Amino acid sequence: MSARKRPARTDGLAHVAAALKEGPPVRLDLAGRGRLYLDRPLPFIAVHVGRRAAPAARAVTMANASYLLAANLAEAAAVVRLVGEKMRDQFGAFLVLDFGELSADRLAQDAPYLAPFQIRVSASAESAETALAAFVGGVEALSARYRAPQVTRAMLADDPGAGLARRLPEFPTLTARFAPIYRVPKSRDVYPELQGRLVAQLVDAGLRAAGKFARTRTALAPATHRALGRGVFVDAVTRADRAMDNIAGSFDFLLAVTPINAEAAWQEFSSAGHARAPVFLYRPLAIDIAARKKALFSIAFDRFEDPVLEGLYREKQQELDLQLSMLALREDTRFVEMSRALYGAVDARLERVAGDILEATVKPGRKRPPETANHRYVAQRAKAMIARYAMQFPAFSPYVEVRDDLPSGLMVSNDRLLIARTTTMARERVDALLSHEVGVHLLTYCNGSGHGLRLFRSGLAGYEGAQEGLAVLAEYLVGGMTVTRLRLIAARVVACAAMLNGADFVETYRLLTREHGFAPRMAFNIALRLHRGGGLAKDAIYLRGLLEILAHLGGGGDLEPFWLGKIAARHFSVMQELSLRGLLKPPRLVPQFLAGAGDRLDRLRAGLSPIDLVT
After folding, report:
1. Could you give the angle at the alpha carbon of 215 between the alpha carbons of 210 and 217, nearest 5°?
2. Where would a tag sit more exposed on the chain, N or C end, judged by fewer CB atoms within 10 A?
3. What spatial distance separates the first Cα and last Cα of the chain, rounded to whole Å?
4. Which residues have a Cβ under 8 Å from the Cβ of 59 and sit 6 or more positions away?
């Protein structure tokens, strides 16, 4: 939910009282660059007082769902009193968190080690003591680039920074002043990364204090302290989200690195006796990469007022930058190294698991060829599955498109299911693959579109591993995982490792045919996927993602948060927090393949390996 209400400027307390009477959300600009912000009723407020430049303290304060920036102590006390009386009537108690910065980083010195940095705290009342203990506990866990915090406890009367607490004896106040360690010594410059880490961790410590206070002094019992974070996002987030989505939507990375002449390349490769790599042709790029990069890095995050969302968008910015750089280097020898950076290397454990699968299985023999399905049958079944999902959510209407410029198979691009005209597959595998493409990729695109921010539909940075792991799991849950399919997923890993270690196209093909017994056309398709663009390491993520999901389920984890949008497993805690804060809506759709899959899910939670999925 976005805070759409524009800040109203006011110089008098009457406007504050009127806004409080109307009720949150409240966003008022006060005199002297001050601001009152309340996104919902809460039993605490974060405050920063002063005109002196203290960007970190302002950022810590503004990251809260309830905050006040004030030019002086008198104004701060008057506004807090109005807010506090109203919130105390509702919750029974009210806490003030007063954040500020010390004048200098006095513990810094030239030494062979990094000195600790000072944080001075005080509490104005006994009722704030538990909150203070929670804050200190959060601070002491802080790691700001190797400089540990040195917390000093001051008595209220002896704390020069506790002026607001002395003016507000009716409200327990926690005062915190920290050294400006983010500033470059003897300079006006700052260390941006250090400032961001410091702000994020002090925000967390403040929420820990507020959470402890709420649980011990009020009837409010948040599930976690992070649930007290911001429940709306400001317009700056919406603007950045739209700008980033426009850039992400201006190109399709996988289409851009996928050859358009797969069939002709196979004929060329066959004619050469499988001894010479074919020439691959690619779509002309329809974007100016330099212009897209300029637009990408012109997106501002400094007004997000939310370190969690800022972190997600900065990660995505880096991922898009890497993808654009790769597009600029298609068929260049440097492409493969950037691919390694984007998708990761094949580590020894992953390669060992893949090798074990190939060793433990053999190409299954058949007494008779399976009944096959062409692109028309696949498209028909896809439309039928989409129609069933549309019965749950009528707006679910992805487009099914048959294309001549794709290798045999299926792929999803945003809200489109693309089917190559040359596609032929065993009919028994169609529903499993459609559960993969429609039931995971298109479903999470739809669900991610429901949160007001497009980032969750286009995908958080690094989401593809979890997505493909879930999609492969979907094939198992509908009973469609076969030895042939599992061998294919394992072969992609082994061949990817070889490609990253320098194997060329022909060497990759021979590895698959001679050492692992793959049929020529299947080996060609695997090699094509791996060597497209100049060397794409994406295909290793299917097995890696599957292993992550199996470990997650075996450890007692749930699948539900994955359906909220396109996320990576490492974003689980972030998604849970955003859900608790009310920023995410429940999924519009739940995968239909979960119905009737209870026994298989129970087996997964008991602990299965990939090879167990076919035995």
Report:
1. 85
2. C
3. 47
4. 195, 199, 305
Same structural domain, 62 and 141: yes
Q: What are phi and psi of 32, to 5 degrees?
A: 65, 40
Enter the tokens of residue 601: 């899910």
> What confidence tens digit (pLDDT) does each residue in 89-102 have?
999 999 999 999 99
Q: How far apart are CA 374 and CA 476, in angstroms?
A: 22
Domain interval for residue 72: 2-231
Question: Higher-confidence residue: 368 or 173?
Answer: 173
- Is 110 in the same domain as 58? yes
- The answer to whether residue 611 scores a pLDDT higher than 80 is yes
CA 486 to CA 483: how far, in whole Å?
5
Out of 133-147, 173-187, 329-343, give the one with best mean pLDDT: 329-343
Pairing status of strand 66-70 against strand 34-38: antiparallel
**Residue 424 forms part of a structural domain:** no
Ordered DSSP codes for 111-177: SSSPPPEEEEEEESSGGGHHHHHHHHHHHHT--BTTB-EEEEE--GGG-TT-HHHHH-TTS-EEEEE
Task: Return the exposure string of 456-481: e unless at least 16 CB atoms fall within 10 Å of the residue's CB, then b.
Answer: bbbbbbbbbbbbbbbbbbbbbbbebb
Cα 11 from chain centre: 40
Examine the domain organization and report whether 224 and 87 are in the same domain: yes
The average pLDDT across 81-90 equals 96
* Predicted TM-score (pTM) of this structure: 0.91
Secondary element (H or E) of residue 9: strand 8-9
Whether 470 is in a domain gets the answer yes
CA-based nearest residue to 488, from 559, 566, 546, 554: 546
> Number of structural domains, the chain?
2
**Parallel, antiparallel or unpaired: strands 34-38 and 26-30:** antiparallel
Cα(263)–Cα(404) distance, rounded to whole angstroms?
Answer: 10
Q: What is the pLDDT of residue 100?
A: 97
Q: For residues 276 and 159, state if they share a domain.
A: no
- Residue 560 in any domain: the answer is yes
Residues 55 and 196 in one domain: yes
For residues 272 and 351, membership in a common domain is answered with: yes
- Residue 146 to residues 108, 114, 142, 176, Cα–Cα distance (Å): 13, 7, 9, 21
Whether the bond between 25 and the residue before it is cis, its omega within 30 degrees of 0, is yes
Specify the long-range contacts of residues 4-13, CB closer than 8 Å, at least 24 apart: 4/235, 7/35, 13/78, 13/79, 13/82
215 and 279 together in one domain: no
Strand partners, 3: 234
Residue 485 lies in a domain: yes
- Rounded CA-CA distance 526/229 in Å is 46
Q: Which of 560, 569, 568, 567 is nearest to 589 (CA)?
A: 560
Please name which of 99, 100, 118 lies closest in space to residue 108, comparing C-alpha atoms.
118
Residues 61 and 11 in one domain: yes
